[in-house]
Amino acid sequence: MSVDVKTLIHEGAELTDRALEALIPSAETVPNSIHGAMRHSTFAGGKRLRPVLAMQAAATIAGSVPRGIENLGAALEMLHTYSLIHDDLPALDNDDLRRGKPTCHVAFGEAIAILAGDALQTRAFEVLAGLECPPASTVKIIGLIANAVGTVDGMIGGQVLDIESEGKKPTPELVEAIHRAKTGALIRVSVVAGGVFAGATDEDVARLDTFGRKAGLAFQIVDDVLDMTVDSAQLGKTAGKDLATEKATWPAVYGIEQSERDAAALIEEAFAALAPYGSRADGLKSVAQYLVERKN
């Protein structure tokens, strides 16, 4: 697997940023404050891993990154950013730092931050409705993403479990449920939606879903470990928050060394799901490998 993953991620991020620049109203567009807030958080330096996963999943199915998929990637990044804005609010994680910059509510106030998150979510679905793929694929993508953001095994449901678990003794079952929903669901659906955009069959979708579930869980396990082992400057957000707020995390249940082994094993299992695609899946595999080897 000879893929330059840094170049691959950089090019995917640039493609996504160009789409986001065109799709999110300028800070000069009235009402200025909310558009400024949306842009503040969206262009705060994210790695664009979810759009890149969608692009590489599409390349796994189609053999190359299809035209127009950058808008799908942009919509996924809008949804991810909306979740971060809301997650940082005083009522949730109460964080002042995100990607090395002041969080949205610190920079613009709570009211505008809440509305900026809402606006990014609605704009994302507006963008998804106009995707350049067959109407049946568009409808399927919208349904999959809406489900992944929702309350049953989706991101919002995971956030609720996370909030309600604070201060309680974490169990393996609780931690896995939170991770698969809060973070894993959007990663999984990024992979699956990219495949659907590229014309994936039901069998392809099942394989991509397996890959996405395992890679998404590995990503969050690594995130938990980094929160405990890396300082705030390197992490780009407040380090040690999970421990300070008694969050249900993988290391809290299994310890750091076992957590690192579990993440590596999950990536190997994720790779196995892509075996039928041979070298066409090299890009997707390289991004997944990056997820567990990153240091911030």
Automatic annotation (TrEMBL):
Q: What biological process terms from GO does the record include? A: terpenoid biosynthetic process
Q: Name one GO cellular component term.
A: cytoplasm
State its cofactor: Mg(2+)
Whether Magnesium counts among this entry's keywords is yes
Keyword terms of this UniProt record: Isoprene biosynthesis, Magnesium, Metal-binding, Transferase
The answer to whether UniProt assigns keyword Magnesium to this entry is yes
State the Gene Ontology terms under molecular function.
metal ion binding; prenyltransferase activity
Q: Spell out the InterPro entries in the cross-references.
A: Isoprenoid_synthase_dom_sf (IPR008949), Polyprenyl_synt (IPR000092), Polyprenyl_synt_CS (IPR033749), Prenyl_diphosphate_synthase (IPR053378)
The residue range of the signal peptide is none
Family as reported in the entry's similarity comment = Belongs to the FPP/GGPP synthase family.
**Which NCBIfam families does the record cross-reference, listed alphabetically?**
FPPsyn
Q: Protein name, please?
A: Polyprenyl synthetase family protein
